[in-house]
Amino acid sequence: MTVHVTLSLAEAQKAELERLASRENISIEVLLARLVEQQLEEWRQVDEELAEAQADFAAGRFVDHAVVVAESEARYRAAEPE
């Protein structure tokens, strides 16, 4: 099923979309549909990664921030020329 939506854009945004659509030899509607799908896929990926991170945290699979900072600072100091 296809749903139609109305979208308000600044003239500069519309011009940029038209330029991109022309470059790809597709309609602005197809371009927008692809951009929406790409953004939705990115958000789905972020949601999956956040859920995985939350599960890791709940299971105790993490390193305390202070430990990471201390180790990083120690490596930095060890790499400094004397």
Topology:
Elements: H1 11-24, H2 28-58, H3 65-79
Helix pairs in contact: 1-2
Structural shape: elongated
Number of domains: 1
Outline the low-pLDDT stretches: none
Gap between N and C termini: 68 Å
Structural class: mainly alpha
Radius of gyration: 23 Å
Order of helices and strands: HHH
Give the helix proportion (percent range). over 70%
Largest sheet: none
Discrete helix count: 3
How many beta-strand segments?
A: 0
What proportion strand? under 5%
Mean pLDDT: 96
Would you kindly provide a brief summary of this structure?
It is built from 3 helices and no strands. It has 82 residues and is mainly α. Helix 1 crosses helix 2.
Written overview of the protein:
The protein has 82 residues and is mostly helical. It has one domain. Helix content is 73%, strand content 0%. α1 crosses α2. It is elongated and about 60 Å long. It starts with 10 loop residues before the first helix and ends with a helix.
Task: List the main descriptive attributes of the protein structure presented here.
82 residues, mainly alpha, 0% strand
